[in-house]
Design a protein that fits this description.
alpha+beta; 8-stranded mixed β-sheet
């Protein structure tokens, strides 16, 4: 994996944004299609043709409620070339709905407020070693810019907009899914493109709903933040709160007492141990008067207690195949008040170089 992700500048109409994305990451997009072709076969027992067919079930909804995102996907396909079409790009963008309802991933997230007014969102993104890019998107006739890390070909993921709204993501293993609600990565894009506050982000989630289960961490530059546990049955907020040290951690299980009764998950045991460890390390920092910062948060996310199923996941071995090759692929830390982001590719415990940007 490269030490830093390439930044692709995308501006203009939805089609122009997509064309810049597709032409700028053509090889990476085709590689990701090959990776997810194998993934769908391994976990969902379907080939790419069947995956495209299932993904097309979202076209009527998106055509009615978010047609510009389909236009952007068409631009991505044409930019990437080699006979791709919009349905291929849509299939990449619904990879969670097609494959993550019967397999768990990793990811350790946190939101934390400092006594100086700083507001941090941070996570280890644990997954297969797919091809990543950073998209800097300036839509035509829009006051908001976005800059986020994503898998090449996906229209949204983990990052920040110019109003100081940031997003993180935890996968949740749960069988329920719906083609009448928005796929995870498309709702993440919608938030980054249109939300200027935490409340506006939550309103978007409530209005369009989530096609499958996940946890989306959202924060804004004014200090509002929290984990939003989402499912096709409804959503529940775990707010950033606490007088001593405002903090919320989240891994890959649902734990809000207010979640819908029909929202059932099937987490791995390490989801609980990683969350407990993250909470312990955060309490230790607080007791030692260590404030949240890029360095102190990265230290927590580099923790290897319980390896290989630690906060910083172990490296895959030559014997590992399929989902056994999941590792910590990237770490992103954002300070929302100043709009500052630090991204590393690879395990943070290996001290990779830092890519930094500000919006």
């Amino acid at each position: 994996m490269p030490a830093t992700a390439r930044v692709i500048e995308c501006a203009g109409t939805p089609y122009e944004i997509g064309l810049a994305h597709g032409s700028g990451a053509a090889n990476e997009i085709h590689d990701n299609i090959a990776i997810y072709t194998d993934f769908f076969q391994d976990r969902a027992k379907i080939d790419w043709t069947e995956a495209r067919k299932r993904a097309s079930a979202y076209i009527p909804l998106l055509s009615a409620k978010y047609p510009e995102i389909l236009e952007e996907m068409n631009g991505i396909a044409l930019g990437a070339g080699r006979n791709l079409d919009m349905e291929d790009i849509l299939t990449l963008n619904v990879r969670s709905e097609l494959g993550l309802t019967n397999v768990a991933d990793g990811c350790t997230c946190l939101s934390q407020r400092g006594t100086d007014g700083s507001i941090f969102l941070a996570q280890n993104w644990d997954w297969l070693q797919v091809n990543l890019v950073v998209l800097h998107i300036t839509p035509k006739d829009s006051p908001l810019q976005m800059k986020f890390m994503t898998e090449a070909g996906l229209v949204g993921k983990i990052g920040l907009n110019s109003s100081g709204v940031g997003t993180l993501l935890n996968g949740i293993l749960a069988g329920a899914k719906s083609s009448e609600k928005f796929p995870i990565h498309i709702i993440l894009r919608r938030i980054l493109q249109f939300a200027s506050t935490f409340d506006e982000a939550f309103q978007i989630i409530e209005e369009y709903g989530l096609a499958s289960s996940c946890n989306i961490v959202v924060g804004d530059g004014e200090g509002r933040a929290g984990s939003i546990e989402c499912s096709p049955y409804g959503n529940a907020v775990i707010p950033l709160s606490g007088e001593t040290f405002p903090f919320v951690g989240h891994t890959n299980h649902l734990y809000s007492p207010n979640r819908p009764t029909n929202a059932k998950d099937h987490p791995e045991e390490n989801s609980f141990t990683r969350l407990q460890r993250l909470e312990y390390l955060t309490r230790q920092d607080n007791e030692n008067s260590i404030p949240p910062s890029f360095d102190t948060i990265r230290t927590r996310l580099s923790d290897q207690e319980g390896t290989p199923l630690s906060i910083c996941l172990g490296e895959p071995t030559e014997k590992d195949v399929g989902m056994d090759r999941v590792t910590t692929v990237s770490t992103i830390i954002m300070e929302l008040h100043e709009g500052l982001v630090q991204l590393t590719l690879g395990r943070p415990c290996d001290n990779p170089p830092v890519l930094e940007w500000q919006l």
